[in-house]
Amino acid sequence: MHPRIQIDTRHFPPADLALPALAVQTTRLVDTYMLWVGTTDVEPEQVASAPLQGCLAKDWACAMPARDTSGTPAAATPLYRSSSSEAALSMAQRIARRFKKQIFLSIDMPPSLGSMGQEGKLLLAIERALVDTLKLHEAAGRDTE
């Protein structure tokens, strides 16, 4: 029998020269994912330590997928957010709708990237990293059933 709770941390190299590398920590529960994603400067081999250097509740939201598939957005609520960030709410909704799982999403992004005009590119890179990570977890989940 496989453990019901699985934790995995992955390193994503910069998608663009102007962007930092990303670390994604996934805690997989039954029909739920807890996701932390943040910028990191740790080496890929040491990515497991990246969440320890970050902040869990900088921009944190929870989303539940709708029961029907008529395009209804996922129900979501912010758990914590600073005045400068609110990307986790809408991103958690999109991910919950796509994967049909409850999503707890924490995005740890330095405010300086927004002032440098890189926020949009970084948010796109974050969402791609999350989708890639969850696709791997979903495929692994099907293999173990």
Distance between the termini: 10 Å
Indicate the low-confidence ranges by residue numbers. none
Query: How large, in whole angstroms, is the Cα Rg?
Result: 15 Å
Q: What is the approximate shape?
A: globular
Describe what this molecule looks like in 3D.
The N and C termini lie close together (about 10 Å). This protein is globular. Strand 2 (about 20-30) and strand 3 form a beta hairpin. A 6-stranded mixed β-sheet has the order 1-2-3-6-4-5. It is α+β, with helices and mostly antiparallel strands. It is built from 4 helices and 6 strands; from the N terminus they run βββαββαβαα. The mean pLDDT is about 85. Helix 2 packs parallel to helix 4 (about 120-145).
Give me a quick take on this structure.
The chain is of the alpha+beta class and 145 residues long. The chain is 32% helix and 31% strand. The model has no long low-confidence stretch (mean pLDDT 87).
List the helices and strands and how they pair.
Elements: E1 6-12, E2 21-29, E3 32-40, H1 50-53, E4 59-64, E5 75-81, H2 87-99, E6 102-108, H3 112-115, H4 119-144
Parallel strand pairs: 3-6
Antiparallel strand pairs: 1-2, 2-3, 4-5, 4-6
